[in-house]
Design goal:
The structure is a homodimer of 332-residue chains. The first copy, chain A, is globular. Chain A is built from ten helices and 14 strands. Chain A has helices at residues 21-24, 46-64, 85-92, 107-120, 135-142, 199-218, 234-247, 259-263, 277-294, 311-315; strands at 3-5, 11-19, 34-35, 74-79, 98-100, 126-133, 158-159, 162-169, 178-184, 227-230, 256-258, 274-275, 299-307, 322-331. Chain A has 332 residues and is an alpha/beta fold. Chain A has two domains: 3-172, Peroxisomal Thiolase, Chain A, domain 1, CATH 3.40.47.40; 179-331, 3-Layer(aba) Sandwich (Peroxisomal Thiolase, Chain A, domain 1), CATH 3.40.47.40. Chain A has a six-stranded mixed sheet, with helices on both faces. At the A-B interface, helix 3, strand 5, helix 4 and helix 10 of A face helix 3, strand 5, helix 4 and helix 10 of B.
Amino acid sequence: MQTIFFKNKPRIVATGTVAGPKECAGVVGKYVDKTLTDDMFGESTYEKAECKMLSYAISRAIENAGATEEDVDLLISGDLLNQIISASFAARDFDVPFLGVYGACSTLAEAFALAGALIDGGYAKRIVGATGSHFSSAERQYRYPLELGNTRPPQAQWTVTGAGGAFIADMGVSNSQIALTSATFGRVVDFGITDVNNMGAAMAPAAADTVLRHLRDTGRRAEDYDLILTGDLGALGSRIFKDLVWEKGVDLQKNHVDCGEIIYKVIEDEFQGGSGAGCSAVVFNSYVYDKLKKGELNRVLLAATGALLSTVSSGQGESIPCICHAVSIENV
Amino acid sequence: MQTIFFKNKPRIVATGTVAGPKECAGVVGKYVDKTLTDDMFGESTYEKAECKMLSYAISRAIENAGATEEDVDLLISGDLLNQIISASFAARDFDVPFLGVYGACSTLAEAFALAGALIDGGYAKRIVGATGSHFSSAERQYRYPLELGNTRPPQAQWTVTGAGGAFIADMGVSNSQIALTSATFGRVVDFGITDVNNMGAAMAPAAADTVLRHLRDTGRRAEDYDLILTGDLGALGSRIFKDLVWEKGVDLQKNHVDCGEIIYKVIEDEFQGGSGAGCSAVVFNSYVYDKLKKGELNRVLLAATGALLSTVSSGQGESIPCICHAVSIENV
C-alpha cells in the first residue's frame, strides 16, 4: 500500500498561473492569470525570468485566495534547474518556511501530496505548492545553447515556459469544494531508455506503475475518474502509457489526457508536445482547475511524471530513471 | 509558529553510515558502519561512488533495524548533485516509494522532519531518511576539476565523502527510546554573501534564525538541550552563528557543536572543517546517535543548514540564499 488518504480533505482554495506567449496561444491561454508578451519577463537572463514566473505564480495563488503572505505556513516548491535555484530564489521573496523538493516534472504532484499530508495531519493550515520551467533555461542546461541552432529529433518535446501553483488550506478555513482526497507516492522505474530526447517513452512506465497502484490501493476503477491527467508524456509517451495499462486490463482511452499533448497547438517545432515541470503546473492550475470549479470535472487524478536524469548521469552512460506521483483531486 | 510537534514521537530505530578514509581518521572513525579504503568505492566515477555510498547507507540502516526493503513505506532522500542524481539513482536500487527533496546540506534535517510528520500523522509506519556527499564530485560540480590543482582560500571547507541515514518508525513498531519530538522548517535567509568559498558566513544567519524560532516556538531555553548540533558551518561560521544568537540573548557557548568543526582532525587542507550533505549525515548517524543510545546525550537539536546556490546563480551575480531546518531528537 503506497497510497495515503486525507480524511480531512484539504481544499485547493485558489491557484496562480503565468505562461509565455507560445503557451498562451493554445488551450490554456484564456485561463492563465498572466500571459507574458515575451519569455524574458523583464529580466536579463532566462533563469531569472523562470524564477520571477515562479515567484509570480506563488504571489498570485495567495492573492487569488484572498490571503496574504503572513497567512501561509509553508511553501513547497522545486524546479528543473540545478540545485532548484528557481524555487530557492523565489522562496527568498517570501517570509515563509520553505521546503525544497525535487521530482523533475512530477514536482507539482509531489508538492500537492506533501501539502495534503501536512494539512490533513494538522501540521499546517495553509500551504502553497508551486513549480515552473522555462524552455530556454532547460535547453541550455539539459541539451545545447539555443545559439547553436541544433535540430530537434521528432521524438522531442518542448519545455513549457510557465509556472503555476495552488493555495491549499485546511477545510476549516475555506469554503472551496475542491479537495485533495488521496495521494500515491511513486517508485523509481527505469526501463533502460537512454535517449534524452525521448522522455515520453522513459516516463510512461513510471506513470503506468503509479496509476495502477493507485487504482489497486483505492479500490477504484479508471472510469471512477472523469480525468486521469498525466503531466508531460507527450503524444508518443501517452500512447505507450495507455498501452502499458491496457496490458494490465485498464482502459484509459476515454478519460486520459496528457498536459503535454494539449498545451500547444501542435505545429512543427514541438513535435510530441509540451514538457517540463511548468507543463502540468500551468495546465492543471488554469484550465483543469477552472473545469473543477465549474463542476465540468468532478474527480481528477493528477499523475505527474518526472525523468530523474542529469547531463552528468547521461554522460556517464546511465539510463533514465523516472518517477510518477499521483494526487486525487475531487469536488466534494 | 513554524514548529510542528510529533505527539506520537516517531522513533529512530537504527542508522547506517559509510565514510571515506580521510573522514574516518577523525572522531567518527570508530562509529561508522563502513570505512572506505579509497574514495572510489570500486566505481569508475566520483558520482557513481557517491550514489553507491548513499545506497549503502540506506541498505545498512534497514539492515541495522532488523528490517527488510519490503518493510519500508517511503524513502526520503536528496543530495548536492545536479538533479539529485545520487538520491534518484540510489532509489532505483530499492522497490520503495521515493520522495526527492532538496535542501543542500540541510537535507538530513529536512528528510527527518518530513519522516517525523508522515509517521506521526499516520501516513507511514517506516521511513528511511538519508543523504550523502562526495568531495570530488562536489569540487568539480561547484568549483573546479581537481586536476587543475587550484589552491583553496583559508575560509574554505572540505566536502565530506560519506553518507548516512536513519530508519525511522512509528512508536508502535519499535522499542527504540530515541524519538523525533518536533521540527522547525526554516525560511530562506540571504545576508548578501557572494563568496562561494565562504559558506559558513553565508549559512550562519539561517542557522540563527531557525534555532531562535525553534526555542521561541517550543518555549525551551538553549540549556534545555544537551547539544545544539549544526550541520556544516565550519569553524568560522560556527563563531558567527554563536555571535548572532548571543546578540538575541541566547548563549550557546556550552552546548553548541558543529559537525563540520569536529569531523576532521584539523590539518592544513580542510581549513574551516567539513561541509556537504554528508557531513551531518555521517556525524549525526554515527557518533551522535551512539551517544544518544548510550544516554550520554538525551536531548539534541539537529539544525542542519544549506546554501541554496548553483554555479549558474553565482555566475549571474546572485548572492547565496541559505536555509536551516531543525529537528529535536530525544531520549524519551
